[in-house]
Design brief:
By secondary structure, the chain is an all-beta fold. It has no helices and 9 strands. The protein has one domain: Rieske Iron-sulfur Protein (3-layer Sandwich), CATH 2.102.10.10. 21% of the residues are buried.
């Protein structure tokens, strides 16, 4: 069963500007409004693991450009563009709901990371 958390009112979001929010004290998300669409992705860059995606630039193709290394990620899918597939990495996408003017974001279960040294 999906669980959603209220993040903010959509009326406060400015077009093509990123906003950082923290869910459950340790999950950082970046929220972007692009025209009438709202995208919610992980704020952590998959390439250098820095919490910087909310500070990224949005291009005309709905890609967010990481401010650290300029890699592009599709806001709808999290994928890098086809010409950069060899770079790998993908931004995690979060489902959203809008109820009245409130933005609700999917609360995902924490992933356990195991290291095999």
């Amino acid at each position: 069963m999906e669980e959603f958390v209220k993040i903010c009112n959509t009326s406060v979001l400015k077009n093509k500007r990123g906003y950082k929010f923290i869910i459950d004290d340790d999950v950082e998300i970046a929220v972007f409004k692009v025209d009438e669409n709202i995208f919610t992705v992980s704020n952590i860059c998959p390439h250098n693991h820095s919490p910087v995606i909310a500070d990224g630039f949005i291009d005309n193709d709905n890609y967010v450009i990481c401010p650290v290394h300029c890699y592009r990620f599709n806001l709808g899918t999290g994928e890098v563009p086809e010409e950069n597939k060899e770079l790998g990495g993908k931004l995690e996408i979060f489902k959203t709901k809008i109820i009245d003017d409130e933005l609700w974001v999917e609360k995902k279960k924490k992933k356990k990371i195991f290291f095999d040294w």
